[in-house]
Amino acid sequence: MADFKIEGLEEFQEKLKTIEKKAPDRILDKLDEEGKKLRVAARDNTPKVTGKLRKGYKLTQVEKIQGGYQKGLYNNYPTFHLVEKGHRKVSKSGKELGWTEGLFMLEKTVKEQEEPIMKELQDWLDELFQELK
Fold this sequence. Notes:
By secondary structure, the chain is an alpha+beta fold.
């Protein structure tokens, strides 16, 4: 997972606390919505050979953590880690033939989507805060 840095973190946390008191279900719904967008983007960045690798992306439940919330994205396909990070090529006799570079699909997706998602969340938070004030 990637770390997001937000300018004005104290103000952001105050708004989040206000919304959490008045409409906690809306936070969960919004994070679910943004998680689904991230999953779609990850699927789009994953090469399609059989389609099973693309279908392996799963979202975790929203968790409350210190200072906010988190929602995870992972891929449970058995060979995902080999395609993502790369792996050794080995012959049947055990001789090493080289290295297959990783595609870093999930890592690239998070980097591409980090800024748009944070902007979307910030705008949503500001709008909802004004509505609930």
